[in-house]
Every structure is written in structure tokens, then in C-alpha cells.
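TA notes. Do not distribute before section.
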Amino acid sequence: MSVDKYKGHLDPLIRGLPLWVILAMGIGLWVGYTAPEIGKALDWGIPVGLFLMIYPAMTKLLGIAAAFWFPHASDRGAKERCRVV
């Protein structure tokens, strides 16, 4: 599968994602170096941010797993949507 056939279909913002990630990392390092007290003020933000990022994926996985554990549950389609490859 060639990547070239999808090259024109991506949004410019998505195509520049590696640049945005590197830029955000650089800004974070610069802020941490120039103002280290900000890190202590945002100390609670890391676990809260990780929870907010992971929560939607975990609820979807738990819903699919519940369909296997409780086969007579109301969402019978979850078992068919999850295939073991």
C-alpha cells in the first residue's frame, strides 16, 4: 500500500502534526526551563489530563468486555463488533 495516494487527502493541519508535536515539546521545555515554578502549579494536571484522555477508550473497552462476560445483556451487537484476529 502506497502512502502517496493518501497524501493529497490529508488536512494541512494533520500533515504538520509531527511539527506541532515537536513545537509543543520545545515550548514545554522552554517554559519549564525559564519558569520552573509553573511545573509545581500544574502538578495536578498530569494525572487529570491522563484520566480525561484514557477514560473514553476505557469505557468503550469495558462495554465490549461486558458483552462477553454477560452475553444476555441488552447490547448484543458489541460481541459481533469485537473480533479476535
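Switch to the second chain here.
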Amino acid sequence: MVYCTFSVTLLEFAVTLTGSSRKVIRMPTVVHVGENLKRLRARKYLTQRQLAQKAGVSPDTIAKLETNRTEPRYITLFRLAEALECTPDDITGYGQES
């Protein structure tokens, strides 16, 4: 079972793994991925168009993400991570020290 609760500042997923054990994941609802995405793309020597093709999204989506004009949907985040051979956390910066 998956339970989702929303608040103004956090998105929380509570996943029941077995019986009463749960794993709770918290993530800010506003995720600016621009700098990280651009850095990871450049590290692979990919253009925005090439990354878009590998990830199955439009080049416009990549441009908007890199300029923080939009936030990634979860499926897009995972497609980008796969295309860049990294984790979604690498793209979002989640867990990195500020």
C-alpha cells in the first residue's frame, strides 16, 4: 500500500513494506534541478536535443528544466536519470550538503 500526504512545504510518501514496517520519504515539493541537470548533461557531452532524445522528452522540456521554468514530473526525472546514468537524487540534489 502507498499512502501520500501533502503539505505546503513537503511531499511525504509512506510505503508499507511488510506488515507494520514503513518507509517514509520526504522531498520538497519545489525542486529546482536546472544547475544539476545542466552539469550532468555537460559531463556526458550531450546537447539538450541529444539528452531529450535519449530520455524520450522534448528539447523544450530540457530547456525549461535547465532554466528552472518548470519542475520535473517523477517519470521525467527517472527517464533523465537513466539517460544520464545517474540517480534521481543526483539531478534533484536531494541529500547533498548545502
